[in-house]
Amino acid sequence: MLGGLIVLFFHFIAAPFAVVHALLFKRDHRAALGWISVSILFPIAGPLLYFFFGVNRIHHSAREVTGWKSTLPYFGYERGEVFLPQEPPPKIDNHPLAHVGWRTTVTPLTGGNNVTFLENGDAFYPRLIEAIKSAQARVWISSYIFSGSGVGMEIASALAEAVKRGVDTRVLVDGVGAWYSLHSLRRRLQDTGVRYVEFLPLRLLPPSLHINLRNHRKIAVIDTGYAFFGGLNIDDRHFVAAPRIDNPHKDVHFELYGPAAISLAEVFARDWYAATREVLTVTGKGEEQGNVRARVIEDGPDEGLDRLAMTLMGVVGGARRRIRIMTPYFLPHRELIGALQGAAVRGVMVEVLLPQRSNLRYVDWATRHSLWELLQWGVRVGLKPPPFAHSKIFMVDDDYVLAGSANLDPRSLRLNFEVGVELFDATLAATVSDYLDKAWKDAQILRLEDLDQRSIPVRLRDGFFWLFSAYL
Q: What residues form the membrane-spanning segments (predicted)?
């Protein structure tokens, strides 16, 4: 009897806190109602479950990692700080879709960029090695995975030679991504003088076990005004024309000369500070060398929260003729699904090209569960057969491309540190569109009846993994 009274006493203290917190800070009314019900109906256990599993600490943790100082209280972590521009966009942002990125980043487009489309590691790695060999001032590389064998060794050798020439040479690898390679380059790079750092490495002492908050960016900055960005890690799996492994991954990267390279250098500098607390100075402006207008969108669970997601929503709403999407993992949030449906019923041609089979089967299953929502409103969905289509491309109309490291799933858009680059240029967009046309040629066109014909066990499996979409 006494024990029951004690439980009820503590429950009537803990439950109101949980209820108030859910009311104030949950972003989804269904989640808030569910957690409030659990907190009230289950003495002590309900509030404890909410505290451990219902409280999203990602945003606050990300702030601590990156060193941002917030004016919001600790428990305001589910809301990022938004700084909307108070003045109209610069004249260079006169494209109908350019206003979106201006509002989400408060960063104007930079003109005068020369951007080259690089298909797979066959095109990218030789250009990167050549760039490292010609570098005179700095080589800064950020990669989720940096393999210690094959092309990774070739790039390491070029970096070692750059150090001998007095080049400021730094490599930043994600702490979880580093475990993908059985042959770590850490010792080899450090022995040759390359500054090698891992972003939030996993360790027991002192404890650091962040499975989330991963740095998924793929950036290489060479000297001033020269950079690479895209979806390729440094790994042999991205050789496709002359494959080095049995299951190659098709992907794309971009080579950029011009002022936007400075923005990519600044992204690297902030990541380096987050990992080391060392401040890097980014100097120079980058000479104008082309006609591409570009804007770098730095996205992450810190103050960059929702920048990419809001940009995607905005440009989908502004599409006039077509939207072309290619992504390896497709678990978009409800708002983006609604925006794509809305575009389709407005008469915009909407295409989504996915791999027939990715390297994460449970993501494929979760994706299949919800594709009917797009198919029934006329969105065209294709499944690309092997090799694994790992490319991340978002095109709108005939002169807008958004490319970078982010997939269209909650992990990329809510939990990872990602980078996207808006590119405004009809000629470049035509090249990217040709790449998509070729990818569609052998794709299986998915029909609504294909999903309807799945057996009950398959539907249950797909639905089960769909429940965990936010964590996949």
A: 6-25, 32-53
